[in-house]
Fold this sequence. Notes:
This protein is an alpha+beta fold. It is about 25% helix and about 15% strand.
Amino acid sequence: MYQPSPIARRVAAATVTLVLAAGAAACGPEDSKGGDSGSGAEGTPQKGGTLTVLNRNPQRDFDPARLYTSGGGNVPSLVFRTLTTRNREDGAEGAKVVPDLATDLGMPNEDATVWTYTLKEGLKYEDGTAITSADIKYGIERSFAPELSGGAPYLRDWLIGGADYQGPYKEKKGLDSIEVPDDRTIVFRLNKPEGEFPFLATQTQTTPVPKAKDTGTKYEEHPVSSGPYRVVSNENDGERLILERNPHWSAATDEERKAYPDRIDVRSGLDATVINQRLSASQGPDAAAVTTDTNLGPAELAKVGSDKKLAARVGTGHFGYTNYIAFNPEVKPFDDPKVRQAIAYAVDRTSVINAAGGSSLAEPATTFLPERDFFGHTPYDHFPAGKTGNAEKAKELLKEAGHEKGLTVTLTHSNAKDFQSSPEIATAIQAALKKAGITVKLQGLEDNDYSDTTHDAKRTPGFFLSRWGADWPSGGPFLAPIFDGRQIVRDGSNYNAAFLNDPEVNKEIDEINKLTDLKAAAARWGALDSKIGEKALTVPLFHPVYKRLYGESVKNVVISDWTGVLDVSQVAVK
């Protein structure tokens, strides 16, 4: 997400959006994945009760076409089922893609340019009507409509004819590259090999939408549920969502969602301090409450550390996210690799980690890819700075670059108090570089201006703080948007700040994308990360860690490495 990769790109994050609901269901949450032991709060989870979600950010644009998610999202996955989804397990197991509406992960042709999916039998909407492959085709096509923009761009980029298609409201014919030979089969024809299409099929754009029930921009007010919960109330564009059970959802067709609570009440627009205070006190309904977007801060963690009962209610998560220094080599003196290398050597990661909230909230990074096998993480440290920086090596490189007396540069950062690209991080870097003879002037921008400036090719600073999150658990959506020269956007939102357009890098990205063996692909993503790292186009700083409280009545806490946050589809409150 992003900056977050538009999930993290637009998920910002690392915070994957959520939605939940409740009500009476004909089919209960039968466990088809091996028991009720859970991985969080003790006690056997039971069906019933109301789960409350306390968040800062509202669940806006609650339309599957407009959401930028992967894995089906968090709250969205309670209402919207997709062709595939994330495996609802703890840690690395949760970073695997598994079937959802489809019977498998899809059948590719020999070069992965054609993917065929077969739907499970017995799938139904909240009104009891059957879900068909034509509904999935229509749901995808409406995501191309300009008035329903906001979702991930991949289908537009990958589907033949997608780049020029304007959606079914303007073009009744639809996309020829999506075929539905019968009610349970859907075929996608791509303009290039994409071995990771099963990951893309987790995004909410593959949610079925019945054409007869489509109300355009008003669909978000009452989208037709294909999941275990349905929307009964959506106030102020997602500020408060009430979800109740979908009586026609069947656990027999859904191995992933537990759907324990009867009702889910999502309340947003709350202050972070208030959220953590309410979860800590755990009084009344707050005993059965969680948050999906609010971290504990350093001061709150200190309090938690002295209270064993409170500490037992903290969920720890890791999301594929890297905070880093970005360089624009089109701006002097950052056109000189030796200057970029000098800065990489001078960085004091210990002070950066402290500025980010301490080692409980941030892990030091020397690689762009996070330290998870599914990303293809390959350890490297091309410019070893140690824990506190190598000022002498930095001075040596500056001398070779003709800056024996040092130099002065400007570091652009956000003024947002987010412990990521904020003033605290910038100040830590400023102090470290001073030891190497580099005077750093700080340019703080308000959050929107910061995002607009750093992503505008005409205004991209030479030296700024940035961050990137994976659209799904793979090295591809991590490396390609930042380093693929064909993704440079000169007029629009650009994420390749280094303007790298290396034919060898571009070719290797294409070759990896052909692979349907994800383990083999991961190894090559890691090798490519190391190769790009030698160019010193970024300085990885840290990977964030999420620490989030939950109420004392919450059970079955599952936190996967796909999202890094508590999975609301697994939670029980009784």
